[in-house]
Write a structure and sequence with these properties.
By secondary structure, the chain is an alpha+beta fold. The chain contains three helices and five strands. The structure holds zinc ion (2 copies).
């Protein structure tokens, strides 16, 4: 995480080289950072399960080895990863499915530095209450939240 001071220096560097105003430079830098984070988040989510347990898991090896199944004694394999929280952007859920029967389970993992979105503190309505709200990066599929493009309609429906 860059410190505030470091961030300002980066913004000033960009202002000097592009001639942009502080706000424009800050906005463009943030967009670039979000794009990089978006690409990383999509890589965390988009992979195909391994055909066999002899090869490393295509998720990048950030999962636990699959457990042995109680029912059929085959092994579970890691088949899917999706955001595992609505507010903790570094929490992902890993789904494991048995290779011999229909058994499955889900584990939560924390991937530091690989968020699926951005957590923002927003002031909510009349009571001026501060709540943490996560914004899902475009292209990331969240089972409970929709990507940023849908946020306007959330507001229209009065979902808080
Ligand atoms: Zn895996
Ligand atoms: Zn099984």
């Amino acid at each position: 995480m860059t410190t505030n001071r470091g961030r300002k220096d980066v913004i000033r560097d960009r202002m000097a080289s592009t001639g942009e105003s502080y706000n424009v430079a800050a906005r463009n830098l943030k967009a670039m950072k979000d794009m990089g984070a978006t690409r990383d988040a999509m890589l965390v989510q988009r992979w195909q399960p391994a055909e066999s347990l002899d090869v490393p898991c295509p998720c990048g090896g950030t999962c636990e080895p699959g457990e042995t199944c109680d029912h059929c004694h085959a092994r579970h394999r890691h088949v899917k990863r999706y955001p595992g929280s609505v507010t903790d952007v570094e929490a992902w859920a890993d789904r494991y499915e048995c290779m011999g029967c229909s058994s499955s389970y889900t584990l939560t993992v924390r991937l530091a530095g690989r968020p699926w979105g951005v957590a923002e503190t927003v002031i909510q309505g009349g009571s001026a209450e501060e709540v943490v709200r996560a914004r899902v990066f475009p292209g990331v599929v969240h089972p409970l939240l929709r990507a940023e493009a849908a946020s306007e309609s959330d507001r229209d429906q009065g979902i808080s």
